[in-house]
Input
Amino acid sequence: MSILFRRACLFTVLLFSTVPTFLSAAEKVPGTLTVHDSLTSPNQSATIEAMLTGKSLLVEPGLAGEPVELLVAGQVVATSMTDGNGRAFLSYTSKAKGVVPFTVRVGTTSIVGGVEAGANLIVWERRSPMMAVEMAALMEDAEGRRPMPDAAEELGKLTQFYYNVLYVVTEDKAVGTNDQVNAQARQWLKDQKFPVGHILVLPSGSEGFGPKLDELHAAGWKTLKLGVGRTKAFAEAFLQRRLNAVMVPEPAKGEAPRKAKVAKAWKEVRRKM
Output
């Protein structure tokens, strides 16, 4: 065998070993991709977290080593690979304030079929006023998921002229994982025509919103001084820090902290603030 022939064979082996393997649609495995909102300021890099899981009979394990892409306005702006837990972290910087919808999808070489998920990059000036709204205060009841009368309209007025809104929901293991609760909350708010805001999911069994409020203030979001919620614990998180709290609808007797303001309906909330 000539030296030239051996080199040609070696080149052929190397060529095919480095070409990415593209699986057909029939060969792809099913999976789920979930993403969370991310909060940042103009000209500051934001980290967007995505979770890719496979599907089995009992669990949804994280899929490691899979390519994912971040798209803004239909253009790929960042790429990453999932880690051992199936999570990927992608960075993006927006120059202007506002809401930047984004999509995360699996790359073409992934073993997972074409799945994608979307969320929002919330770009706010840190000096702009913020309010936190407990999602339970937006619903007539937890099961029916019907919105409180006038809630979307009144909150829309508040965000149109003054406030940026942070929606707070607590993870419910009966409903799903943290990622699933996040996706469900986003879809419900969209379906009920609530203003776009940043969605924050508190882990089940957590100490409530207080520690997260401290964390946001430490990160520079010091204009978050008002909470509108349904539960005593949510109101106390603000009152204990000498901030303002409004409870809606009117709680049972004895459930409202002494310094909390109470609104019977959303039509009264603006007057109580």
